[in-house]
């Protein structure tokens, strides 16, 4: 429960920083520009999975890996191999925290569901993190977890990272 209590502290302290990159944006915001409490839940789910994995979701955009952070989390969790997803530096004895790690991954996956109605509310999320809710709903496979390979043609789809440059003009 130590890791879950840390997650609760981070969440309650309002330290969840949403960076406007595709890795943190909910599908409804990225596609339709709709933002809600459930968009924050999606971003928190990505952040939770990043903490457990020890890698940023944008790390996967910079490398030739065939799976995104969400796809990797889903694959290992659904194969009942959550420990393979957990960062080695999180704890000395991963096996000791196996149930807690699996729970964190399941909570993260519940938060990154495609449709906002399938994600928990902030209150429900807090109850999951504190252990008030013991039975976490089984999440569906996240839509954004598809491999970057185009299955119909077998070719790899390129991903670009957008950068923003601000220029300030000053008179002489």
TrEMBL record:
Domain Serine-threonine/tyrosine-protein kinase catalytic stretches: 23-129
Signal peptide: 1-23
Keywords noted in UniProt: Signal
Alphabetical list of Pfam families matching this protein: PK_Tyr_Ser-Thr
InterPro entries xref list: Kinase-like_dom_sf, Ser-Thr/Tyr_kinase_cat_dom
GO molecular function: protein kinase activity
Name of the protein this chain belongs to: Serine-threonine/tyrosine-protein kinase catalytic domain-containing protein
Organism from which the protein derives: Perilla frutescens var. hirtella (Perilla citriodora)
């Amino acid at each position: 429960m130590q890791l879950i209590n840390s997650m609760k502290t981070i969440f309650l302290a309002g330290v969840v920083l949403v960076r406007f990159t595709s890795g943190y944006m909910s599908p409804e915001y990225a596609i339709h520009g709709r933002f809600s409490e459930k968009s924050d839940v999606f971003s928190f789910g990505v952040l939770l999975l990043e903490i457990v994995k020890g890698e940023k979701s944008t790390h996967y955009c910079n490398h030739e890996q065939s799976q995104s952070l969400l796809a990797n989390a889903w694959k290992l969790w659904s194969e009942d191999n959550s420990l393979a997803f957990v960062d080695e530096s999180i704890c000395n004895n991963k096996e000791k925290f196996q149930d807690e790690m699996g729970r964190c991954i399941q909570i993260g996956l519940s938060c990154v569901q495609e449709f906002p109605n399938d994600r928990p509310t902030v209150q429900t999320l807090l109850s999951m993190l504190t252990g008030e809710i013991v039975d976490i709903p089984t999440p569906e496979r996240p839509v954004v977890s598809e491999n970057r390979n185009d299955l119909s043609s077998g070719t790899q789809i390129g991903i670009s990272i957008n950068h923003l440059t601000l220029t300030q003009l000053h008179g002489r």
